[in-house]
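target protein:
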Amino acid sequence: MSSQCKVSKGPSIGVRHLQSLLLFLGLTAMHIARLNVSVAIVAMTNAESTNPNFPEYNWTERQKSYILSSFYWGYILTLCPGSFLCRRYGAKVVLFIASCGTAVFSLITPWCITWGDWQVFCAIRILQGLFQGVIFPCITEHLAVWSPPEERNRLGAFSFTGSDCGTVLAMFISGMIAKGAMGWPGISYVSGALCAAWCILWLVCGANNAPESRFISEAECKYIESSLQHNENFHERSIPIPWRAICCSVPFMALLVARCSETYGLSTLQAEIPSYMNGVLNMDIQSNAVFSSLPFLAMWLLSYVYLIVADILLKKKWLSLTAVRKVFNTLSFWIPAAALIVIGFLDENHSKVAIALMIVSVGVNSGSTIGSSLNAIDLSPNHAGILMGLSNTVANVIPILTPLIAGVIVVDKHDRGQWQIVFGIAAVIFFVGNCVFLIWGTAEAQPWDADDFLKPKDAESCSEKQVKPTEAIAPPIDPVLEQQITWPERYTAKAID
């Protein structure tokens, strides 16, 4: 048994699990604030189906698409800076500020819309995107320093399921809130209150790393740090970023393509499902919100099934980590691709079949968390936040485009043929993106992840050679002269040499 196996893991439910739970709750709260607009916008433009006591806005489909996509205009601007901010100030401070900003702008949204109309709504969404852009780089960086390698899938996947839970709640409770006494403004008020509550919880219980936590036991801290091979001053030093190696890395490029493909398909479903059900299936807002949340409820629940299966496959060594990533990514991309094509040919007479296929397509997509989302930590634990920031920056240009593309294609939301094009494009992108990941993706740590990758080894060896003095070679002594030198003189000469 190795010395690492003998190290006590501390309590069975420790502070590392608490950090994972906090990340889960944070993602839940901030995704509610991020995604409830897709239901809120239906209530704001169709007051008869919700609470008629609140203002109704006559926004065009294109204006709605601007509102839906505006969040991502700000979101992509802070993805890369978010990874740098996290490395500089720590995840605790950065995530706290991100959640506070989201809470404030959620609370003031209803008041601002009453005097600024959809243009101000877009501006608020852009500002919320700026605050939330730092979230995933920080969470990835936080998981990299809190998750022992053998628990990385478990803790990482559980944390990321907060986004699925938030999506479900955003669509499920938003319709009921809009239907109730608070009306559509209540959607923003509830979102802001949840983010504010998480800020307090995170401020008390969050910690940048194991040694900084005031609640962690010595055994658990030692287990985490030793499993990650961190020395005493690891958290104080700064590792230079190998930009050129990262940008030229084929596995990272494969990850980037996979993330872009997954983001396109999922963002299309998240933004367009309420409008599709309202326009094509002719459902009112309350049933719209309930049925719209069912696919993401399946996504949330199936993510735990994927998690359990992945643990079994890895513990029994039936598949390598790379194989697990590729198998799960294939399931989560290709099954939704096939379902989306079929969905495009259904109308209100086949509403139950359409709902079932949507549940399947979105639910099965939850495997992408284990399939490719956590792959950044595999490729480079030391630069996981940087990789997540880069990949999310590129990938989240897509959600800016998807509502705009849908807004151009779907001129009449009741036209089934126009929705066929929207879902068909998403299906093709799903298929091609996974093919790239199958061919070039890997879960092996890359050479440029090494701490000393950018260390000038040749220059160092040259400097060592210069520091070490070369031994002077004494000139040979003439044999005849040597015989004439007395013993004390010969000893003195050798001592001087």
In short: The chain has 23 helices and no strands. The CA atoms of residues 239 and 451 lie 6 Å apart. The longest helix spans residues 91-132.
